[in-house]
Structure formats: C-alpha cells, structure tokens
UniProtKB/TrEMBL annotation:
Keywords: Lyase. One of its GO terms (molecular function) is 3-hydroxyacyl-CoA dehydratase activity. It comes from Carbonactinospora thermoautotrophica. It is an enzyme of class 4 (lyase). Belongs to the enoyl-CoA hydratase/isomerase family. It catalyses: a (3S)-3-hydroxyacyl-CoA = a (2E)-enoyl-CoA + H2O; a 4-saturated-(3S)-3-hydroxyacyl-CoA = a (3E)-enoyl-CoA + H2O. Its EC number is 4.2.1.17. Gene3D superfamilies: 2-enoyl-CoA Hydratase, Chain A, domain 1, Lyase 2-enoyl-coa Hydratase, Chain A, domain 2. The keyword Glycosyltransferase does not apply. This is Enoyl-CoA hydratase.
Length: 266
C-alpha cells in the first residue's frame, strides 16, 4: 500500500505483519492533537482493509504513552451548547476507538503516563503491557468532567466494576506494577526492555494462523458471547471455516515435523 503522510504519528511496518504505531508529539506528552487525530483516522481506515497486517502495536514517543485529549479548548467556548459540544466529542471518541474495529489483535505498549483518553486508548486494545513505573489514570472528575471516550464501559470490561469505580471516583493514578494486580495490564517489564518485549509478544501473535486469529478476536469482542449457547453456535460456524483452510494443514504438518508453522492466511 502507498505510505500515508501522517502528522504526529510514526508507522513502522515489519515484514512479519506487525505494524508499530508511535504517537509522536513528545513535547506535549503525545496529547491527541487535531492533526494526530486525523492521522489516526486515516491510518485505521487503511489498516482495516490491509490483509497483510497481523498485529498492531501502539506506543508513545519520549517518556509518555499519551496524556489524553487536547484540553486547550476546554472552557474556551463558554457559549457553546450541549449539542455543539456533543457533536465535537463524539467524532473524536469514535475516531480513536476505531482501533477496536480492526480484526487483527492490537497491543498497547504503555511506556509512560497514560492519562484520561490516553488510558482509554490503551484499554481499547486487546492486550496491554506496561513499564513498571508507567502511570495510568482517569482523573476526569478531578477536572470537573464526566468520564469520556467510553471510560465507563472500557474500565469495567477490562478490570471489573469495583476497579472502575475506584479509579473513576478517586482519580488516583496507578503504576504499571500495581495495574497488573488490578487486571488493567497483562504484564509489566522494565522500561528499557518494554518495547522489545512487546514486539516479541506481537511476533508470537503474528505467527499464529491469521484467519483463526481474526475469528477468535471477533468471538471475544465486547466481553465475549452473551451465553454458553451463543458461544457454541459461533464456534460451530467459525471452527469449520478454519478446518477448510490451507493453514490448518500447514499447522498439522509443522506439528508433525516439530517446526514453526508458516501460515499464509489461506
């Protein structure tokens, strides 16, 4: 595909199918600027239709993951109506949360502070790994704001209602190390090793059978199936799809030959 010209984003495409996306506005701790938001929209549109992509990793430039939305305009429009403000916020939320529409697994590498909407971006990814001293916080109410960008849905989905209540009502920040115990992140690593470790995880994910992986992500979307019966009905359709692929036979051959499979996504 033609490389996009993106502002405040860096994109590194690996031969393995990994796409490393770096929020690149370090002087503002990678705040979600208008140019960055538009770049994100264009990138997600491209990745959604790119069948060569097998895993997407998101991280931040410099010492922060993402300090959240650009708050410079908040309070600057005292005469704006609720409808006008809503019409501004919904497209912003939906643009950044469009990462959830990707069929491939997504991973947040939380290298530093992930605050407000920045924390929500990490929560919107399928997997999260953090530096031990990274800070995660959703201090909306401390600013006089109701939580936004689906924080009241994403936090309970990832870590449960009790954790969501505590973090949203107190606004306190947690370290990467504490976040593991709360279920907010999968694992932590020393900061200097984080990206290499996360890319290693992404390589493992990207090495799995692409069709089976995409269908598994769909099965687990939005908290998984509503019931056991729903799960069985889905799996009775999705598993036969993978039984009919070339990748299945390659996986079986690789197991017999005691080697790593080379999945082609067919």
């Amino acid at each position: 595909m033609t490389e996009l010209a993106l502002e405040h984003l860096r994109v590194d495409r690996r031969d393995s199918g990994i796409v490393l996306v770096t929020l690149d506005l370090p002087e503002r701790r990678n705040a979600m600027s208008a140019p960055m938001t538009e770049s994100w929209r264009r990138l997600m549109d491209e990745l959604r239709s790119d069948r060569s992509v097998r895993c997407v990793v998101v991280t931040g430039a410099g010492t922060a993951f993402c300090s959240g939305g650009d708050t410079g305009w908040i309070g600057s429009e005292p005469d704006a109506t609720v409808d006008q403000l809503r019409d501004r916020m919904l497209p912003f939320y939906r643009t950044w949360l469009s990462i959830r529409d990707l069929e491939v697994p997504t991973i947040a590498a939380i290298n530093g502070p992930a605050v407000g909407a920045g924390a929500c971006l990490a929560l919107a990814c399928d997997l999260r790994y953090a530096a031990e001293d990274a800070k995660i916080a959703v201090p909306f109410t401390a600013l006089g704001l109701h939580p936004g960008m689906a924080a009241t849905w994403l936090l309970p989905e990832v870590a449960g209602l009790a954790v969501a209540r505590e973090l949203l009502l107190t606004g306190r920040a947690v370290t990467g190390t504490e976040a593991v115990g709360l279920g907010l992140v999968n694992r932590v690593f020393p900061g200097e090793k984080l990206l290499d470790e996360v890319v290693g995880v992404a390589e493992r994910v990207a090495g799995m059978a692409p069709i089976a992986t995409r269908l598994t992500k769909v099965a687990l979307a939005n908290g998984g199936h509503a019931s056991l019966e729903d799960a069985l009905r889905w799996e009775a359709l999705a598993q036969p799809v993978t039984l009919a692929t070339e990748d299945l036979h390659e996986g079986l051959r690789a197991q017999r030959e005691k080697r790593r499979p080379r999945f082609a996504g067919r």
